[in-house]
């Protein structure tokens, strides 16, 4: 509840809308920021980032400002909350005063980011109320009373004419490339399983037709895909909440200057709202239970919801939701009296928006003109719950079959975290186990088409005949002298062999490429253990082949990272 009040009543800096020059006049600012790529700020923060790090800003620029920084991160990544830490230091350099130490939220914590954010928010409010006491004539909102919803749903007596302009998505006048607000509906051409029938994981090679889309991309770029909920889940959700999926409404903000969510048509049907916007397949956070308790008319269910949303109930909440990965839809089914009484106006406050998923582009336009390919591992695993857990986007993509009829997928492209050298004689070392090899296929295709040599690929998987993605293609390029391929099939011998073992085996070659030929080193794949193992292998190579001490090896690696000769693209 404190977090909701904080958002509504305190100056929280929305960096995508904020005019940077106004910062010098703000007495109190709370910065909430994430970290992307190689320790980079999010896209909506980049203009602000360039401004705040201008060298000509006086050291007293922000001497009138009190501030607090909340970082949202994931400690499985090497650059954990890098942007928040750097921003905090920079604000102090410019004369601003920190109300309290930086807060580093961590998605990897068993209790999620709330484990650190909750106590930090309590301390923040104490500091803020000392500086800005609540006026005597302003009553405190009683505990258990929800704030007004951000939007109202004004239901229409009858469905609008489907051909009317109002019922369609707004069409941008911009001639620019597709974006989140205006994605391209790309026809799916193929959806092919590329793992063997006995392999534990379903991995798909999916190809889209991007003819006349205005989309262009280079190796290292990513495609963002906007998924939808399954028809079965939509029907179940509407049944539990007592909603008519065919009913239409107009969305109205309660406060001026609050935009309606992009991508929702006006008027909109309940089916469109639930299928395209409400992320009922996500695991709910504590704030979901707080608001749900406020909306519950059922005494027993309300008591349980209050317990799960309390500070003392966080271990119970973790056991109920976080560990088994119970979804919002499943929670609503567990609290049927509450679910059936949720006012529709609160749906957008209660349930987060479905976010687009990013996939490394696995093809080059130089080899596959007017096409875009991705490699998708279909996420499915079991917990103690009866139903297996499924990834929303990967499962949705896997369910689409262009052989049965036309299929269109909303997508757009943005620059990724990997940038490859343009000089033709600069070698590149690419380490991509599993689906991490996807961006390197685009890179190899692009570099070979441009006549660039010195392509070294370290690929790892379990079995040569089950999950050796593009194995024939790599071997053909190797025969032509366009690629040096090093493989690690981990399950084909008694002792498991991974890409880091192959790197150590070829230590003299790796050192020669990096230290004498100026090679670039790239790493892509799962962020859990592999990046650390690969960096340890590199450190060992620097010491054994380069004769460096451990501190000097660490400095050497840091210099590679700083000059972008060591780049990573990893995911949790």
Automatic annotation (TrEMBL):
Enzyme class per UniProt: oxidoreductase
SUPFAM superfamilies (alphabetical): Ferredoxin reductase-like, C-terminal NADP-linked domain (SSF52343), Flavoproteins (SSF52218), Riboflavin synthase domain-like (SSF63380)
GO biological process: iron-sulfur cluster assembly
GO MF term (any one): oxidoreductase activity, acting on NAD(P)H
Residues at which FMN binds: 34-37, 72-81, 107
Gene Ontology cellular-component annotations: cytosol; nucleus; perinuclear region of cytoplasm
The keyword Oxidoreductase is assigned to this record: yes
Residue ranges annotated for the FAD-binding FR-type domain, each copy included: 181-422
Subunit (UniProt): Interacts with CIAPIN1; as part of the cytosolic iron-sulfur (Fe-S) protein assembly (CIA) machinery. Interacts with DCPS.
Protein name from the UniProt record: NADPH-dependent diflavin oxidoreductase 1
Organism: Marmota marmota marmota
């Amino acid at each position: 509840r404190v977090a909701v009040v904080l958002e509504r009543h305190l100056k929280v800096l929305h960096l995508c809308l904020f005019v940077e020059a106004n910062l010098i006049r703000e007495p109190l600012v709370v910065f909430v920021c994430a970290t992307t790529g190689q320790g980079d700020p999010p896209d909506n923060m980049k203009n602000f980032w360039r401004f705040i790090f201008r060298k000509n800003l006086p050291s007293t620029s922000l001497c009138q400002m009190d501030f607090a920084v909340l970082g949202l991160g994931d400690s499985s990544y090497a650059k954990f909350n890098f942007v928040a830490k750097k921003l905090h230091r920079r604000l102090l350099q410019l004369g601003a005063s920190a109300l309290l130490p930086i807060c580093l939220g961590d998605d990897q914590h068993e209790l999620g980011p709330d484990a650190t954010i909750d106590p930090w928010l309590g301390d923040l409010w104490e500091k803020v109320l000392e500086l800005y006491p609540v006026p005597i004539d302003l009553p405190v909102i009683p505990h258990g009373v929800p704030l007004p919803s951000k939007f109202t749903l004004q239901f229409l007596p009858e469905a609008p004419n489907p051909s009317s302009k109002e019922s369609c998505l707004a069409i941008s006048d911009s001639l620019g490339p597709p974006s989140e607000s205006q994605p391209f509906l790309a026809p799916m051409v193929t959806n092919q399983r590329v793992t063997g029938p006995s392999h534990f994981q379903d991995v798909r090679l999916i190809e889209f037709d991007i003819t006349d889309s205005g989309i262009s991309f280079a190796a290292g770029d990513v495609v963002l895909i906007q998924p939808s909920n399954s028809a079965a889940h939509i029907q179940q959700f509407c049944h539990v909440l007592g909603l008519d999926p065919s009913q239409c409404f107009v969305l109205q903000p309660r406060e001026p200057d609050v935009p309606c969510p992009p991508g929702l048509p006006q008027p909109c049907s309940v089916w469109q709202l639930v299928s395209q916007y409400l992320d009922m397949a996500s695991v709910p956070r504590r704030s979901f239970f707080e608001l749900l308790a406020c909306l519950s008319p059922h005494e027993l269910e309300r008591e349980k919801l209050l317990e799960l949303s309390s500070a003392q109930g966080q271990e119970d909440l973790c056991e109920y939701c976080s560990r088994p990965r119970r979804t919002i839809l499943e929670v609503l089914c567990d609290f049927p009296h509450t679910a059936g009484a949720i006012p529709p106006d609160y749906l957008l406050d209660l349930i987060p928006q479905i976010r687009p998923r990013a996939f490394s582009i696995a093809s080059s336009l130089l080899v596959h003109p007017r096409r875009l390919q991705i490699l998708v591992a279909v996420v499915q695993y079991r917990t103690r719950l009866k139903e297996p857990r499924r990834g929303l986007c990967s499962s949705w993509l896997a369910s689409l079959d262009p052989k049965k009829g036309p299929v269109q997928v909303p997508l757009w492209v943005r620059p990724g975290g990997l940038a490859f050298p343009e000089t033709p004689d600069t070698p590149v070392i690419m380490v991509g186990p599993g689906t991490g090899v996807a961006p390197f296929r685009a890179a190899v295709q692009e570099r070979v088409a441009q006549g660039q040599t010195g392509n070294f690929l370290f690929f790892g998987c379990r079995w040569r005949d089950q999950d050796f993605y593009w194995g024939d293609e790599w071997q053909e390029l190797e025969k032509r002298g366009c690629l040096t391929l090093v493989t690690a099939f981990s399950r084909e011998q008694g002792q498991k062999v991974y890409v880091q073992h192959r790197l150590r085996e070829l230590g003299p070659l790796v050192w020669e490429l990096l230290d004498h030929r100026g090679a670039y080193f790239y790493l892509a794949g799962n962020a859990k253990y592999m990046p650390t193992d690969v960096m340890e292998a590199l450190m060992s190579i620097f010491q054994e082949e380069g004769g460096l001490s451990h501190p000097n090896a660490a400095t050497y690696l840091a210099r590679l990272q700083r000059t972008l000769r060591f780049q990573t693209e990893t995911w949790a």
